[in-house]
Write a structure and sequence with these properties.
- The chain has 232 residues and is mostly beta strands.
- The chain has helices at 2-14, 223-228; strands at 21-27, 32-35, 40-42, 45-49, 53-58, 68-70, 76-78, 87-95, 98-109, 113-114, 120-124, 129-131, 135-136, 144-149, 152-153, 162-164, 170-172, 181-188, 193-203.
- It has a 5-stranded mixed beta sheet with strand order 11-19-18-14-15. A 4-stranded mixed beta sheet has the order 2-9-8-5, with no helix packed on it.
- A hairpin with a 4-residue loop joins strand 18 (181-188) and strand 19 (193-203).
- It is rod-shaped, with a radius of gyration of 29 Å.
- The model is unreliable at 215-232 (pLDDT under 50).
- Residues 88, 103-105 line the site of 2-acetamido-2-deoxy-beta-D-glucopyranose.
């Protein structure tokens, strides 16, 4: 009985049934996109006994920049993505029983950015106020820009005094005191989003002295300040 078992075991292991397994790639990305400046992990999930050794190529090149690192999991980690990282990636899995590979395309898009600091304005009630929002984005992606007043989205259909121009500026045609507050320009594509904010104080003509006393904490948000504060 025991001898029988040992014989079967030896037979099985000699033809590799028990212990060895050719590598297989179970999962890789499809149609992957990301924006520049970010990090990305391109996954390559494999099986195989012993664990296959994973190598990667980019557009056929085996020598990759320092920003590229193969993780223990087999994933390829890329830090600080650059536009030139776009292209075809191939994951190779190999052990002594065989090898396999799979490829996919990865596209790095330009990130969305608001290029100007938003205005901080003090105007007399009834006059016009204009905020500018100069956005750059990847032209292959649809851009959506919307405005918020004190964190609430502005509905331009319901508020005819508010106009959004084709260059994403916000014009408040006849300001009232209620319009005072924080104004945020929010820009997004399918891959990323960003926001910047400015401030508006609307004064009645009858209280001109207050124009000189705009509280410091209400004005002067730059893009950087905005991210650190809690308004968004
Ligand atoms: C990647 O894109 C190129 C060019 O569009 C195409 O020829 C190639 O077949 C794609 N590769 C994969 C793995 O989809």
């Amino acid at each position: 009985m025991t001898a029988h078992f040992i014989a079967l075991y030896l037979l099985a292991s000699s033809i590799g049934l028990c212990t060895s397994k050719m590598p297989q790639i179970k999962e890789i990305p499809t149609d992957l996109e990301a924006v520049d400046g970010r990090d990305a992990s391109l996954i390559c999930k494999t099986t195989g006994v012993p664990h296959p050794k994973i190598t990667w190529t980019h557009n056929g090149k085996i020598s990759l920049p320092k920003r590229f690192r193969v993780l223990n999991s087999g994933s390829l980690h890329i830090s600080n993505l650059q536009l030139e990282d776009s292209g075809e990636y191939t994951c190779y899995a190999e052990n002594e029983f065989g090898s396999t590979m799979r490829s996919f395309n990865f596209t790095v898009r330009r990130h969305t950015e608001i290029m100007n600091d938003l205005e901080r304005l003090a105007v007399i009630a009834g006059t016009k106020a204009t905020f500018h929002c100069k956005v750059t984005h990847d032209k292959n992606l649809a851009l959506r820009v919307f405005w918020l007043h004190n964190r609430k989205s502005i509905n331009f259909d319901e508020e005819p005094r508010f106009i959004k121009t084709s260059d994403h500026s916000l014009i408040i045609t006849k300001t009232t005191k209620m319009d005072s507050g924080i104004y945020t320009c929010h820009a997004e594509t399918s891959l990323d989003e960003t926001a910047a904010s400015g401030a508006l104080i609307v004064q009645d003509v009858t209280e001109p002295s207050q124009l000189k006393n705009i509280p410091k904490e209400v004005i002067g948000y730059s893009k950087e300040n905005w991210k650190k504060r809690e308004y968004y």
